[in-house]
């Protein structure tokens, strides 16, 4: 069995930071859409406007998925911290915080 | 927004300031995402106490997500660049179109003024004619009475002068009209060019935004999907679009190297074989000529080795009696300068071969120019917005540009050390092809050359028309001066009354 050690408190705090990063990506995603729509309006020519709008839709979808993915990983981290704590407290109650 | 339009010239729609502002915001978003990327990268190292298989997987996922964010940062920077470039080009095109409209309005005002002046001059001529008729009548009646009216004579003279002046004014107004009509046509062509520039800018923007399609399939916790941003080689080099950096058209690069690229039509495919065959032939001729020149030069300067073989017999006598006899062979070798005739002939041959080599090199460069001209002509053949002068100018510009590239290739090829005539020809043709492909793919250079050629061609045509107008005007002024001189001379001639010739 490979060696492992963990301080669940660090995992919980990092999970929070990661959740916040996911939120920032989502924010960027919204701003990107708004900016690209403004650019498409300013383009004047239909082909260029359509291309910009298509680009925005593709990147907006991708960044949205990335935000969800980052949030999901943060959730996993939180769950891992919980699992470690549960193990420490219930399965091996005498093991202490660090194992 | 409503578009400004006049005489068929339309200011291209679009708001450069809005695009520029969007470009700035794209950069700002890229910076925000870059910060997210850095933080994602730092998360695993922040948890120093977590070690084990799960921590490794977590770190890997963070790196993957950071990679995805980095990709998006790149795409946002590219979008910012494309938006700003579009804004700049659109602004230039709009300014050009507005100037064309201003020129067209000015020309139209002059056309209207010239038409009014023509109408007025014609009316003055008609009035002068009526006055002349009346004065003639009075003069005739008074002459019949035996006392020609001096006032009627004066009226007749004044009417004739007024009629001539009005005719002169009409001629001048017609010249003005012709000039203004030429200027209006020029302004319209300028407007068409501006609209074409705007279309080009829009196409470039559409292409810049089209390939970056985000991460197909979204971004899972695992690796970001490959091919985001338009795919790699050969996809982006084979799709007929100018992907990625706009200054380098990878499709044009590959089209020049490979005849069966989908971007080459039948004509271009056939031309590729012609170009490549001619390129290899000139390269072979150049290589062979320079090799022959070198050999002839070596022959002229290498000393000759003269070998002399002496065979003889000898007889030694002592007191008249043979004491020893036999035969011997002596071989001697000496180095001598080659005979003057050989030196002269070889040097002449080296000079001739060298000239042939240079001519072949020049021929290769000229062929590249012709090929560039034909390529651009073929490319522009379907464009209805270009005049023949525009097409000739653009083709000549690109032909000159390709000649410059070929000359550069020839210089590079000449310093690559290769052995053998065939190898030299192959290397020379290959270097020429590669340089030609690079020059063909360098969009700003080629476009600049095309536009410069177009501007020069139009300048030459406009200059010719200007000179023609100037000559016409000069001739007309001379005619006016001559008419005026004749009138003055006529005024100096005494008014002699000749009743015997007067029918009244």
At a glance:
Chain A has 99 residues and is mostly helical.
Q: Bin the helical content of chain B.
A: over 70%
Strands of the widest sheet of chain B, in order across it, are: 1-2
pLDDT average of chain B, as an integer? 83
| Broad shape of chain B | flat
**Percentage of residues in strands of chain B:** 5-15%
Proportion of strand residues of chain A:
under 5%
* Major β-sheet profile of chain B: 2 strands, antiparallel
- Structural class of chain B comes to mainly alpha
Helices and strands of chain A: which structural class? mainly alpha
What's the total helix number of chain A? Answer: 2
Number of helices, where a helix is a run of at least 4 consecutive DSSP H or I residues of chain B: 9
Contiguous low-pLDDT stretches of chain A (5 residues minimum) are none
The most extensive interface, with participating residues per chain, is: A-B, 50 and 62 residues
State the assembly state of the protein chains: heterodimer
Provide the fold topology.
The complex is a heterodimer of chains A (99) and B (504).
Chain A: H1 8-43, H2 46-91
Helix pairs in contact in A: 1-2
Chain B: E1 5-6, E2 9-10, H1 16-46, H2 53-144, H3 150-209, H4 250-257, H5 266-301, E3 304-318, E4 321-336, H6 340-380, H7 388-415, H8 421-441, H9 443-492
Antiparallel strand pairs in B: 1-2, 3-4
Any overview of this molecule?
The complex is a heterodimer of chains A (99) and B (504). By secondary structure, chain A is mainly alpha-helical. Chain A has helices spanning 8-43, 46-91. In chain A, α1 packs antiparallel against α2 (46-91). In chain A, 38% of the residues are buried. The model of chain A has no long low-confidence stretch (mean pLDDT 85). Chain B is mainly alpha-helical and 504 residues long. Chain B has nine helices and four strands. Chain B has helices at residues 16-46, 53-144, 150-209, 250-257, 266-301, 340-380, 388-415, 421-441, 443-492; strands spanning 5-6, 9-10, 304-318, 321-336. A two-stranded antiparallel sheet of chain B has the order 1-2. In chain B, a hairpin with a 2-residue loop joins β1 and β2 (9-10). Residues 216-234 and 496-504 of chain B have low confidence and may be disordered. Classes of the chains: A mainly alpha (99), B mainly alpha (504). Chains A and B meet through α1 and α2 of A and α1, α2 and α3 of B.
């Amino acid at each position: 069995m490979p060696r492992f050690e963990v301080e669940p408190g660090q995992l919980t705090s990092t999970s929070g930071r990661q959740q916040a990063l996911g939120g920032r990506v989502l924010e960027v995603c919204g701003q990107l859409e708004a900016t690209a729509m403004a650019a498409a309006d300013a383009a004047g020519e239909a082909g260029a406007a359509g291309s910009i709008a298509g680009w925005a839709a593709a990147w907006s979808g991708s960044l949205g998925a990335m935000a969800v993915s980052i949030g999901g990983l943060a959730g996993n981290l939180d769950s891992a911290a919980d699992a470690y704590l549960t193990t420490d407290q219930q399965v091996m109650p005498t093991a202490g915080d660090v194992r | 927004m409503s578009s400004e339009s006049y005489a068929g010239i339309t200011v291209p729609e679009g708001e450069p300031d809005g695009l520029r502002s969007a470009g700035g915001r794209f950069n700002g978003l890229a910076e925000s995402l870059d910060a997210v990327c850095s933080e994602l990268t730092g998360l695993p190292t922040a948890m120093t106490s977590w070690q084990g298989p799960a921590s490794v997987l977590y770190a890997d996922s963070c790196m993957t997500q950071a990679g995805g964010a980095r990709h998006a940062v790149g795409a946002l920077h590219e979008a910012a660049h494309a938006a700003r470039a579009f804004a700049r080009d659109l602004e230039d095109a709009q300014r050009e179109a507005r100037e064309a409209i201003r020129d067209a309005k000015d020309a139209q005002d002059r056309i209207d003024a010239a038409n009014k002046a023509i109408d007025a001059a014609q009316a003055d001529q008609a009035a002068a004619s009526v006055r002349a008729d009346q004065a003639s009548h009075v003069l005739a009646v008074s002459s019949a009475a035996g006392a020609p009216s001096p006032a009627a004579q004066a009226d007749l003279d004044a009417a004739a002068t007024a009629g001539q002046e009005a005719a002169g004014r009409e001629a001048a107004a017609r010249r003005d009209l012709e000039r203004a009509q030429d200027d209006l046509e020029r302004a319209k062509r300028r407007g068409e060019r501006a609209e074409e520039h705007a279309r080009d800018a829009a196409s470039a923007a559409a292409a810049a935004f089209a390939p970056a399609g985000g991460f197909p399939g979204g971004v899972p916790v695992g690796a970001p999907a490959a091919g985001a941003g338009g795919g790699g080689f050969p996809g982006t080099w084979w799709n007929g679009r100018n992907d990625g950096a706009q200054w380098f058209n990878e499709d044009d690069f590959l089209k020049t190297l490979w005849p069966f690229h989908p971007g080459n039509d039948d004509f271009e495919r056939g031309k590729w074989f012609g170009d490549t065959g001619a390129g290899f032939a000139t390269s072979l001729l150049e290589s062979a000529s320079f090799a022959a020149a070198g050999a002839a030069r070596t022959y002229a300067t290498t000393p000759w080795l003269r070998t002399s073989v002496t065979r003889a017999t000898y007889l030694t006598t002592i007191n008249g009696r043979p004491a020893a006899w036999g035969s011997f062979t002596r071989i001697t070798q000496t180095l001598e300068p080659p005979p003057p005739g050989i030196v002269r002939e070889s040097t002449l041959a080296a000079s001739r071969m060298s000239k042939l080599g240079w001519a072949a090199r020049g021929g290769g460069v000229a062929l590249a120019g012709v090929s560039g001209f034909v390529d651009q002509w073929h490319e522009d053949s379907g464009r209805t917005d270009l005049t023949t002068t525009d097409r000739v100018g653009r083709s000549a510009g690109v032909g000159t540009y390709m000649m410059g590239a070929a000359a550069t290739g020839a210089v590079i090829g000449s310093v690559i050390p290769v052995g053998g005539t065939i190898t030299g020809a192959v290397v020379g043709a290959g270097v020429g092809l590669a340089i030609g492909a690079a020059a063909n793919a360098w969009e700003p250079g080629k476009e600049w050359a095309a536009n410069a050629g177009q501007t020069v061609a139009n300048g030459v045509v406009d200059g010719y028309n200007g000179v023609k107008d100037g000559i016409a005007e000069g001739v007309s002024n001379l005619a006016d001066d001559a008419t005026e001189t004749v009138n003055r001379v006529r005024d100096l001639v005494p008014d002699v009354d000749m009743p015997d010739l007067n029918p009244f």
